[in-house]
Every structure is written in structure tokens, then in C-alpha cells.
Amino acid sequence: MTGATSTTDTAAIFPFDNSYARLPDRFFARLAPTPVAQPRLIKLNEKLAVHLGLDPQKLASPDGVAMLSGNAVPEGGEPLAMAYAGHQFGGFVPQLGDGRAILLGEVIDREGVRRDIQLKGAGPTPFSRRGDGRAALGPVLREYIVSEAMAALGIPTTRALAAVSTGETVFRETALPGAVFARVASSHIRIGTFQFFAARGDVEGIRVLVEHVTARHYAEAARAPNKALALLEAVIARQVDLVAQWLLVGFIHGVMNTDNMTISGETIDYGPCAFMDAYDPATVFSSIDTGGRYAYGNQPSIALWNLTRLAETLLPLLADDENAAVEIAQAALGVFAPRFQAAYAAGLSRKLGFRQSEPDDFALAQDLLHRMTANGADFTLTFRRLSDAVADPAADASVRSLFATPESFDEWAVKWRARPARDGGDLDARQKLMRAANPAFIPRNHRVEEAIVAAVERSDFAPFETLVMVLSRPYDDQPEFAAYTDPPKPDQIVHQTFCGT
Ligand code: AMP
Ligand code: MG
Questions:
Q1: 12 within a domain of the structure (yes/no)
Q2: Three-state secondary structure call for residue 251
């Protein structure tokens, strides 16, 4: 004990260990968040805080909230806005960057994983263009709800550490309450980060970035003779698995621009994202996606398109000869389609209760999906109730009632039951497998909307709190919250979601 008490006990709040801030100056702009009028903690993710090695009590204290809102820079923090570029709806923008997000620094979590702590809505930066650098409460709550739901579903994602209201108004189409979102990611490096340097012919920048991300995310690639190739292959593998998982739970990202696709393979930037109710691969919710570029069923091909843009940035590092480099890149990208098909098919087999995927399962699953589309059947409920029907055909009634023409399900169920479960496992074991692959609870749009409206219009955060809690256990039955499994009634259907930027 020195006896000296510092005015703020900030040193211990974030044990920062920053690596991005050590990269060359042209990778970012250093600046602190812009303070807000009246920060108030809406929600702190205590479990995540503990996992990050942080003390929830300190974070919830006035000093902690000052940091979570950008009113104080924690000791050891080296705040910066990251530079990046990106293809937005297919059109290239050579400079985007963090226009309203500030990376405070990095901490090492309890599993030894380096994690960014970023404040979204933390004020203008040199990358803001015409934006105000702020975030509205609604989109902050949406990102909190959906990213935490994705984590609970077991899908790689950025995480929500906290949401703080600012006491300030932001102006979008109307005046809205402002908020700051504290986001955690294994990094915020995007395909667009590589594109930023490629667009400037800055091969050295790409080289530095490859070193940084392989060391950080892909230890094996870091040891490979051709690091850039190993990195490309590794990112492709993670993105394939990610997008397959999205499809298997009915998730639609909504803005799969290359600046919204991470190198780590985590889902990022929850804007007009949504989960599908009735199954239809053409589903689009985003108000700005008028062409349906980012429709549910397009997501695999868009992921490949984006990864092709990543490969292009790496060409100078793949081989000295340009033609040879292109061939190497094409071979790496050629793995995408078969790998995706394998991951998606295996996931569908599990959803149908088969541990070992067999070639015919895919047609069986497609047959069900087609029937669901034709019958307006709810995606989540159909598979969840199928998990009951596997052990008890009497439960078929609850599945078939989801189909406009219930006989369509009956026809399919005969084929399903005729598929022998050669991989062993009694019905109970199969049911367990299915229940672990078929969530009961997803963040349904009408529930998300309901939580946002209550918070924004009535300062009532109870629906938000309940929703976050229910979604933290998506695979459990939680009978007391059965109403949260319900699809929207006709007047509750959300037809469009908005970016809210
Ligand atoms: P997003 O659509 O959130 O992925 O953002 C696309 C780009 O717009 C990024 O460069 C963001 O930083 C920037 N941006 C979005 N909203 C704002 C805002 N309110 N103020 C400044 N920049 C923004
Ligand atoms: Mg973005």
C-alpha cells in the first residue's frame, strides 16, 4: 500500500494489452471518444465482463460507466478509429473506416484470447464523412439482443459488453434517444481493411496486416511457408462454416458488404439483420436492400464474392508471377463451394436427427424445405417440433399444423421415418441431437421490435431484459416463456428492418 489513492480507480478496470495501436500510423487515426451529456448504464453483460477478466462492479460504477460511454479514457487505453474500405452493395468505396466507433484497446480474456473493446456511437472521427458519429438507442438494443442471441446459439459473433444511454438526442428521420454500445470482438479487422491498402497499392501495408492477423487469429497460418495463402484458406474455412450456421438457424445478415465481414470469422455489424419466421430463401428484410442482393439464400454466394475480393488484395503476396498468383487464389476459392455444401448438408442432417450425414439426406432436407416454403411453415418451429416427433409420432400433429396443407408434411414424414438411423443412437439420443441443433428461441423480429419500442418510447427496459434472458438459453424449453417461441400474428409481422445509422 502506498497510501496514495488516485482520484479515479481506473487503472484496474481494463488491463489493456494493445497490439493494433502498435501498427503503422496509416492503419488508423488516433482520437478519444467525444463525451456525452448524461451517461446512464442500461445493461452490462456481467458474465462476459468476468470472462474478459473485468470486474462487473467496477464497470457499473460511475467511473466504469464514464469509460463505457466515452466520457473518460481508461488508463492504458489507446483510442483509435480503424481505417478500412469496402464494397457496399457491390460498389467499391476506397475509404470508409470507423466513422462512429472507437477502439479503446485490447484485453486478453480468461481463455487467453485477445479481445477488442470498442465503443460504437462514440462520436465523430476523421472517417465520419457526413455522419454524426453517434448511434440511436434502438439499433444499439437490436445489436445487443441479436449478437448475444447468436453467441448463445453457438455461432461466432462479436459480443455485447454494455449499452449506455447518452442523455442526448440523435437525428435520423426523427429525433431519437442516443446510446453508446460497448462491443467486444476477437478483432475488428475486416475484408475491407485489406481492401483499404490494396486500393492504395500499399503492398507493404497488406504484408503488415497479414503478419498481424495470422499472429492474432491463425497461429497455424503464421507458421506456413506461404502465409498469405494459408491466411486466405483459413478465412475461407471460417466464413464457410459461419454462413452455413447462419442458414441453419434462419439468420439474414442484411448488409454483407465487404466491410461487414471479419477476418476472424465472427458475425459483425448487426444492422438490418433479422431471423426468418416462415421459411423462404428469397426473404429480405433490409429496407436498403431493394435488389435482394443479401437475401437469405444468396448469403453463401455473396460470402464467396466477398472472399474473392479478399483474395484479390493478397495476390501480390501469393506469388511473384501474377498469373501464378491468380491460379493459387482460384484454387483456394474453389474449396468454398464443396466445403459449404458439406457443412450445410451435415447441419441439415443433424437438424433431421442424423449424426452421420448421408448423401441422400440433402434431398430429404430440401424436400422438407420446399414444402415449408410452399406451405408458409415457420422455420424454427418446424424443426423444433420435429425434435419432439422423432421420439413420439403423436407429436406429428404439432408439426403438421404449421403447414397450410398438413398432408404435405405427412407425405414427407413417411420418407423421413424410412431413413434408417444407421449411426446408432436410440430415439432419445436422436431427440437430444435434434434439440441441440434446433433452437426453440430465436430473436424473432416482432419481439425485438417490441423490446425496442418499449425502451425508446416509454423508457421501459423490462421487455428488453426479458428477451435477452430468454434468448440466453435458446435450446432449453423454458415453458414459462413459451410465448416467445410463437411466430408473429398477422398484425405483428415486421416487414422491414432499418440500418438505423
Ligand atoms: P455500417 O453500415 O454501420 O456498416 O457503416 C458503414 C460506414 O458508415 C462505416 O464507415 C461507418 O463507420 C459509417 N457510419 C455509419 N453510421 C455512421 C454515423 N452515424 N456517423 C458516422 N459514420 C457512420
Ligand atoms: Mg459496418
A1: yes
A2: strand
Hey, is 102 helix, strand or coil? strand
Condensed to tens digits (0 to 9), the pLDDT of residues 12-35 reads: 799 999 999 999 999 999 999 999
* Rounded percentage of the chain residues whose pLDDT exceeds 90: 93
Same domain, 197 and 302: yes
Asked if the structure places residue 49 within a domain, the reply is: yes
Does an H or E element contain 433, and which? helix 427-437
Last residue of a domain, one of 286, 310, 343: 343
Q: What separation in Å is there between the alpha carbon of 269 and the centre of ligand 2?
A: 5
Instruction: Please work out whether the CB of residue 132 comes within 6 Å of at least one atom of ligand 1.
Output: yes
Question: Is the CB of 334 within 6 Å of ligand 1?
Answer: no
Active site positions, annotated: 259
| CA separation for the pair 432, 235 (Å, rounded) | 31
From the CA of 171, which ligand is nearest? 1
Q: Using the mean position of ligand 2's atoms as its centre, give its distance from the Cα of residue 411 in Å.
A: 44
Mean pLDDT of 211-229: 97
Q: What's the gap in Å between 134 CA and the centre of ligand 1?
A: 9
For 293-331, write each residue's pLDDT tens digit. 999 999 999 999 999 999 999 999 999 999 999 999 999
Q: What is the pLDDT of residue 500?
A: 58
Kindly identify the ligand whose nearest atom is closest to the C-alpha of 498.
1
Cα 156 to chain centroid, rounded: 7
Nearest to 265, CA basis, from 289, 286, 284, 246: 246
Cβ of 281 closer than 6 Å to ligand 1, yes or no, is: no
Mean pLDDT of the chain: 95
Q: Are 315 and 329 in contact (CB under 8 A)?
A: yes
Distance CA 265, CA 348 (A): 21
495 domain-assigned? no
Q: Would you state the pLDDT for residue 49?
A: 98
Q: Which domain holds residue 294?
A: 192-343
Q: HEC states along 22-70? A: HCCHHHEEECCCCCCCCCEEEEECHHHHHHCCCCHHHHHCHHHHHHHHC
pLDDT above 50 for 238: yes
Secondary structure element (H or E) that encloses residue 116, with its range: strand 114-120
Beta bridge partners of 285: none
Question: Is residue 138 in contact with ligand 1, taking CB distance under 6 Å?
Answer: no
pLDDT at residue 424 is higher than 80: no
d(CA 419, CA 305): 36
